[in-house]
């Protein structure tokens, strides 16, 4: 039995929940028709058909699917009262792709299918509108040729442009019947030139078009898009075969696209465009300049009222902002598509808050409507002072503010250029006449996008918004000469600025302003809707979010972002500052006790004041401080670094060659597995004593100042419980000594990192001794996989391409392997100590999918991540709350 479902003409039954089977478009067409909106009738061939086609049929449509198609077609014919391929009363079809996850512009659609020399005459006679009939024919020839037979679209466009030029027309809808007939002949010639036959048989057209849509699933563009968007485990695309309605029948017809709210700022007003006497993707493709949706109210008041009503019905029904495609045929409105609309970060938060206030959804649903990427955008910098003269004077042109945010980067005119440069870490802005699906890789890698053509719903705008890339579209003041590598900007006063590939440009996606130079940006703030939204996030989430912070400034930033403590202070990060590093080097290389002591005495005040600052910033929240961890050679200068060597050798009363010898002898073959973590502490206890003294003295000082300091001291890289015992004993003895000196005490805890598989496997022993565990998930991943995390770049991309790895395990925690170690550690640890505090402080703490695992499957008490990821981790924690 072939899975295939009808929709339209009041058809009920299937719903949006079926989107895995029907694809998003098909499921929503079915849903719209079942709630009574007017949807042209048709049917959906499911994603299962696509899988069948792709895996077993090699470009051939299986007979079982075809016989179902003909059966369903009969039903559509009777609903429409006309007949596919008829020479008197013909039915035309659209063949539309649609996967479960919307992939804008990635898959192809064929309109006006069922046309040939006979049908065009029949359609013309039946409607009395020859211009419309021939216009539909030329559109079909182009789409079918391009999508199904893969003739480059430009070959058709060239013919069309020539004919328009000869006749002195600017716009497609100026073409008259005779012109259109000429276009049709010219298009048929294009087929001949390509040695391809245009099938006159309408059934053959349908068979080939369905096959092409299914086949498009495995096209390069679709594959690239899925890769970039991390879309997997989909069966394929569905195909929707639908009776055509015509927006190109004259002045009472048209087509448009519309968001039910403004996808940039979330305002509750329709945001869209339409074109009179046009069809299909004319609006999106920027063929003519569309009119704003608000103008529909005056152009066709009744249609507008019905449309407005529909948008309300749909928002109520889906509880979300909708992105709608519609067509008007001779004054009658048809709904052709709806889906939850893509939106920018600011809009996502505002709409989530508004929907709750309007009673459409509850808080938990609202929390689920904002994606981590949305918050990420809001947490990105914006131009510091757009009111300043410096800013205002820098503006050279402006275009449509298609996607918000600040983008600063080097001008690149090609996709490849962006990809190459961004791999080297150079920020790029992609500048193009217009973007096409072939540009997705470059758009993704860019900081922002600028186009000369296209409107607010153009390809560039939609894709950029989805990815949070700032984008300015339709800037007619710019002229791009790709060959010469120049961008010429005509300013308001008529003067021109010529910029070259590689020059810096800045885009303000909120206003559409373009600056021909590098403009300063400033960090974001939490206020208004965002602040409101984040209070709901905190109400709902079930685990704590802490931050990794090494300095008082980072700690303050973390607090601002809502961290309730510090999960990791990397004490060694404080060592790199210029005035400290010399002392650290002396400490490492010293041959005498006196030199060691001198270095430690000099370092102590630095550590103490840093810790004090952090305790103050974190008043009342725990501060987890990791004792020295990295291999010591990381602090040593290069043996070629003359100037540093000179200075250090005189500081330590050595000769330069002696010093070089010392440096060389400190080198290890495999430093990541060498003398680091507690191994260092065990062999050089005096360093640990200094650090612990710094921590405890700082805590006592802070407490003296009225601060609630909560130090948690963490011992790194433990593999055996004996290591932990050794270090914990040293920590406690040192703390006792300070308490005695100061005549007062404070509370502190001693815990350990779990980052070596052996520690995970012996968690029950370590839990007997330790006050808390913190998973160092970076090292745990490194050591569990045996992948050097500094060298994975050489093979991970290939592993992902081949499907050996689905994710980079250093980005998203490996649930099956590393995750299993984490789960068993938690279980064994808590068996010994039920109240054991357990968290994670690796990079994974800020990765939404990992956070879900830590919260729900592993049962951790907290995650800790870098300060700017804290809001994202809070959101992820709330979204995974059950
Ligand atoms: P995409 O996924 O690229 O948006 P669609 O399948 O939605 O592709 O088709 C693109 C456009 O083609 C639609 O927005 C609509 O304007 C037009 N279209 C599709 N089906 C029909 C139809 N049955 N009648 C009229 N126009 C249609
Ligand atoms: Mg499209
Ligand atoms: Mg569409």
Structural summary, described in words:
This protein is of the alpha/beta class and 882 residues long. Among the domains are: 245-348, D-amino Acid Aminotransferase, Chain A, domain 1, CATH 3.30.470; 380-522, Glucose Oxidase, domain 1; 536-575 and 596-631 and 678-774 and 837-880, Phosphoenolpyruvate-binding domains (TIM Barrel), CATH 3.20.20.60. Helix content is 46%, strand content 17%. The chain is built from 35 helices and 33 strands. Strands 14-24-23-16-17-18-19-15 form an 8-stranded mixed beta sheet. An 8-stranded parallel β-barrel has the order 26-27-28-29-30-31-32-33, surrounded by 6 helices. Helix 18 links the parallel strand 17 and strand 18. Helix 14 (363-369) crosses helix 20 (528-540), helix 22 crosses helix 23 and helix 27 (685-704) packs across helix 28. The longest helix is centred in the C-terminal third of the chain and has 25 residues, at 593-617. The two termini are 39 Å apart. Bound molecules: adenosine-5'-diphosphate (ADP) and magnesium ion (2 copies).
List the helices and strands and how they pair.
Elements: E1 4-7, H1 19-34, E2 42-45, H2 47-57, H3 63-80, E3 83-84, E4 90-91, E5 93-99, E6 110-113, H4 117-127, H5 130-148, H6 153-167, H7 177-193, H8 202-216, H9 220-229, E7 237-243, E8 254-259, E9 271-276, H10 282-285, E10 291-292, H11 296-299, H12 301-318, E11 322-329, E12 332-340, H13 345-357, H14 363-369, H15 372-378, E13 382-383, H16 389-394, E14 395-398, E15 400-403, E16 406-412, H17 415-423, E17 428-432, H18 440-445, E18 448-451, H19 459-467, E19 471-473, E20 478-481, E21 486-490, E22 496-500, E23 504-508, E24 513-515, E25 521-522, H20 528-540, E26 544-548, H21 552-560, E27 566-570, H22 578-589, H23 593-617, E28 622-626, H24 642-651, H25 656-666, H26 678-683, H27 685-704, E29 710-715, H28 721-742, E30 749-754, H29 757-761, H30 763-769, E31 772-775, H31 777-785, H32 796-801, H33 818-832, E32 837-840, H34 848-857, E33 862-865, H35 870-880
Parallel strand pairs: 3-4, 16-17, 17-18, 18-19, 26-27, 26-33, 27-28, 28-29, 29-30, 30-31, 31-32, 32-33
Antiparallel strand pairs: 1-2, 2-7, 5-6, 5-7, 8-9, 8-11, 9-10, 11-12, 13-25, 14-24, 15-19, 16-23, 20-21, 21-22, 23-24
Helix pairs in contact: 4-5, 5-7, 6-7, 13-14, 13-15, 13-20, 14-20, 15-35, 20-35, 21-23, 22-23, 23-27, 24-25, 27-28, 30-33, 34-35
The structure holds adenosine-5'-diphosphate and magnesium ion (2 copies).
């Amino acid at each position: 039995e072939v899975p295939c479902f009808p929709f339209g003409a009041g058809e009920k039954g299937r719903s949006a929940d079926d989107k895995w089977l029907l694809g998003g478009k098909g499921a929503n067409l079915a849903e719209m028709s079942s709630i009574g909106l007017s949807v042209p009738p048709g049917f959906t061939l499911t994603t299962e058909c696509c899988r069948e086609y792709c895996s077993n049929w090699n470009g051939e449509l299986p007979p079982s699917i075809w016989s179902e198609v003909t059966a369903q077609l009969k039903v559509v014919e009777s609903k429409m009262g006309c007949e596919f391929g008829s020479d008197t009363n013909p039915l035309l079809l659209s063949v539309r792709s649609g996967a479960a996850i919307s992939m804008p512009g990635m898959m192809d659609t064929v309109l006006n299918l069922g046309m040939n020399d006979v049908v065009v005459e029949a359609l013309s006679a039946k409607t009395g509108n020859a211009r419309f009939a021939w216009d539909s024919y030329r559109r079909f020839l182009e789409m079918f040729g391009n999508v199904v037979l893969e003739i480059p679209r430009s070959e058709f466009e060239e013919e069309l442009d020539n004919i328009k030029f000869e006749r002195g027309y600017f716009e497609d809808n100026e073409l008259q019947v005779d012109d259109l007939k000429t276009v049709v002949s010219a298009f048929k010639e294009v087929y001949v030139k390509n040695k391809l036959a245009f099938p006159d048989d309408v059934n053959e057209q349908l068979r080939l078009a369905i096959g092409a849509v299914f086949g498009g699933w495995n096209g390069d563009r679709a594959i690239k898009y899925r890769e970039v968007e991390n879309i997997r485990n989909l069966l394929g695309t569905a195909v929707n075969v639908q009776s055509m309605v015509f927006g190109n029948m004259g002045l009472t017809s048209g087509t448009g696209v519309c968001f039910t709210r403004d996808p940039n700022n979330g305002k509750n007003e329709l945001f869209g465009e339409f074109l009179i006497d046009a069809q299909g993707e004319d609006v999106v493709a920027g063929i003519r300049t569309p009119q704003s949706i608000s103008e529909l109210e005056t152009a066709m008041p009744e249609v507008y009222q019905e449309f407005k009503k529909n948008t309300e019905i749909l928002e109520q029904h889906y509880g979300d902002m909708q992105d709608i495609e519609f067509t008007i045929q001779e004054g009658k409105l048809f709904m052709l598509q709806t889906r939850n609309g893509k939106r920018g970060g600011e809009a996502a938060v505002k709409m989530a808050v508004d929907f709750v206030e309007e009673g459409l959804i509850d808080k938990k649903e609202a929390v689920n409507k904002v994606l981590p990427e949305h918050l990420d955008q809001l947490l990105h910098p914006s131009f510091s002072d757009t009111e300043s003269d410096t800013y205002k004077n820098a503006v050279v042109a402006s275009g449509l503010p298609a996607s918000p945010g600040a983008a600063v980067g080097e001008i690149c005119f090609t996709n490849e250029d962006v990809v190459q440069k961004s791999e080297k870490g150079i920020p790029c802005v992609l500048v193009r006449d217009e973007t096409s699906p072939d540009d997705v890789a470059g758009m993704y890698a860019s900081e922002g996008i600028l186009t000369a053509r296209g409107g607010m719903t153009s390809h560039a705008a939609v894709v950029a918004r989805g990815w949070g890339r700032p984008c300015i579209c339709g800037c007619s003041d710019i002229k791009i000469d790709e060959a010469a590598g120049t961008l010429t900007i005509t300013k308001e006063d008529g003067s021109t600025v010529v910029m070259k590939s590689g020059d810096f440009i800045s885009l303000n996606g909120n206003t559409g302003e373009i600056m021909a130079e590098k403009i300063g940006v400033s960090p974001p703030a939490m206020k208004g809707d965002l602040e409101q939204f984040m209070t709901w996030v905190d109400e709902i989430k079930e685990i704590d979010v802490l931050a990794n912070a090494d300095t008082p400034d980072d700690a303050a930033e973390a607090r601002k972002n809502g961290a309730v403590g510090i999960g990791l202070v990397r004490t060694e990060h404080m060592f790199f500052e210029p005035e400290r590093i010399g002392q650290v080097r002396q400490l490492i290389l010293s041959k005498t006790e006196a030199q060691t002591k001198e270095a430690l005495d000099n370092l102590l005040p630095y550590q103490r004041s840093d810790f004090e600052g952090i305790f103050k910033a974190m008043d009342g929240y725990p501060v987890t401080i990791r004792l020295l961890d990295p291999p010591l050679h990381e602090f040593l200068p290069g043996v070629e670094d003359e100037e540093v060597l000179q200075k250090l050798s005189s500081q330590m009363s050595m000769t330069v060659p002696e010093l070089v010898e010392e440096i060389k002898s400190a080198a290890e073959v495999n430093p990541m597995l060498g003398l680091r973590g507690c191994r260092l502490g065990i062999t050089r206890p005096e360093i640990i004593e200094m650090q612990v003294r710094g921590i405890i003295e700082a805590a006592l000082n802070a407490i003296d100042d009225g601060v609630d300091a909560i130090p948690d001291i963490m011992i790194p890289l433990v593999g055996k419980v004996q290591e932990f015992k050794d270090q914990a004993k040293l920590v406690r003895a040192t703390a006792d000594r300070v308490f005695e000196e100061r005549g007062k005490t404070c509370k502190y805890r001693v815990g350990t990192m779990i980052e070596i598989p052996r520690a995970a496997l012996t968690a029950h022993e370590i839990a007997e001794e330790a006050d808390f565990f913190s998973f160092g998930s970076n090292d745990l991943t490194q050591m569990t996989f045996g992948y050097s995390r500094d060298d994975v770049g050489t093979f991970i991309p290939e592993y992902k391409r081949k499907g050996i790895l689905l994710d980079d395990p250093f980005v998203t925690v490996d649930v099956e392997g590393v995750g299993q170690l984490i789960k068993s550690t938690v279980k064994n640890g808590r068996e010994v100590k039920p109240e054991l505090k357990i968290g994670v402080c690796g990079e994974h703490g800020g990765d939404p999918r990992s956070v879900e695992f830590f919260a729900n499957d592993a049962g951790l008490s907290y995650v800790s991540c870098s300060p700017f990821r804290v809001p994202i981790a809070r959101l992820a924690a709330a979204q995974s709350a059950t």
